[in-house]
Amino acid sequence: MRKTVYSFLFLISALSIAAGVRAQSQGAYIGVGAGSSNASFNSNDFSLGIPQVSESADKTSTGIKAFAGFRFNKYFGAEVGYVDLGKFKYNYNGGAAGSAGIDYKVSGFTVSGIGALPVSEDFSLFGRVGAFGSTAKFSLASATGNVATALANAGFGVGSGDSANKTTLYYGVGAQYDFAGKFGARVEY
Description:
single chain; mainly beta; 9 strands
């Protein structure tokens, strides 16, 4: 197993609550959101190469985010945020040969431009594109038997870990509905 950058692809669909400005108004706003997140593991980075050991991954988690933005006009805005994609797990099960579990956590900061298409006074569709500066952290949660020995030979004991930083493209689409007053709800992918 390499101690290199692990690639994570994520899709977070979130129901977000935004406060501060209606979709078609200009000005500052803040919000929070939560939703499902998915990880894509590169098997070359994780495989132990032991034939009797099966490998699996828990690729889904619940992510959260906090964001702030500024709408320049009813069509364009910019947003920054903090995203925690949750915790993922990679498992090794070799029966009598032993087992191991590695915990992964991905979080980071986003910056994006937003283009909006107002459908009505209270409802708009939007798209975003920007960057996600993420940190992926892993730690060996448990290990037994020959699997523990193989991981120890690679320099990983229970409780040890590493992290990698990476900047990736951040993009998505969504819809926002603004309620009376200065509150709205978003669904995005």
